[in-house]
Write a structure and sequence with these properties.
Order of helices and strands: HEHEHEHEHHEE
Pfam family, one: DUF938
Structural class: alpha/beta
Largest sheet: 6 strands, mixed
CATH architecture: 3-Layer(aba) Sandwich
Protein name: DUF938 domain-containing protein
CATH class: Alpha Beta
CATH superfamily: Vaccinia Virus protein VP39
Strand content: 15-25%
Number of domains: 1
Shape: globular
Helix content: 25-40%
């Protein structure tokens, strides 16, 4: 909840005014509810590979009754094909660091397949950056993630961007966010 308003501010700037937004790794669905409430021209399509997460999203959807919040779908970013053929935008919040690198590779491949020219892929979370010292809080978080699962951890933004370019995406902007996080916007070229 603490990051939703700063993320929403960026989404208002970079998302189209209408169309379908596919949210990858939507988790409990709290962001999906919040963003669909404040972006009524967009159909928000939440996805998650976890059955319990999708049940939570469905419960939020039923409780809130938002007409533009769609039924959640099962989607593992690392797997192909995805259960959609296109989307007007993709949003992925706090997944890249709490998943194996294969999920990032799959996310970029999926964005390259689904998005049309100029459409955004919006990422949010903590990153390492070449030439920037890692903040103490992010360093401790990175160590904790790697202790929990050696395939997890803060990724270098430059590595993520390199994979994105390989799938027809270009870095559009990097927005500094509260708590040493970034919102990163790529666009399909």
């Amino acid at each position: 909840m603490r990051n939703r308003d700063p993320i929403l501010a960026v989404l208002r700037e970079v998302l189209p005014t209408s169309g379908t937004v596919l949210e990858i790794a939507a988790g409990t669905g709290e962001h999906a509810v919040y963003f669909s409430r404040f972006l009524p021209g967009l159909f928000w399509k939440p996805s998650d590979p976890d059955t319990n997460a999708r049940a939570s999203i469905a419960a939020w959807r039923e409780a809130e009754g938002l007409p533009n919040l769609m039924v959640p779908i099962a989607l593992d970013a690392a797997a192909a094909p995805w259960p959609l053929e296109s989307a007007d935008a993709l949003v992925c919040i706090n997944m890249i660091h709490i998943s194996p690198w294969s999920a990032t590779l799959g996310l970029m491949a999926g964005a390259g397949r689904l998005l049309s020219q100029g459409a955004p892929l919006v990422l949010y979370g903590p990153y390492r950056r070449e030439g920037h010292a890692i903040e103490p809080g992010n360093a401790a978080f990175d160590e904790d993630l790697k202790r929990r699962n050696p395939e997890w951890g803060l990724r270098y933004l430059e590595d993520v961007a390199k994979v994105a370019v390989g799938h027809g995406l270009v870095l559009d902007r990097v927005v500094e966010m509260p708590a040493n996080n970034l919102t990163v916007v790529f666009r399909r070229c």
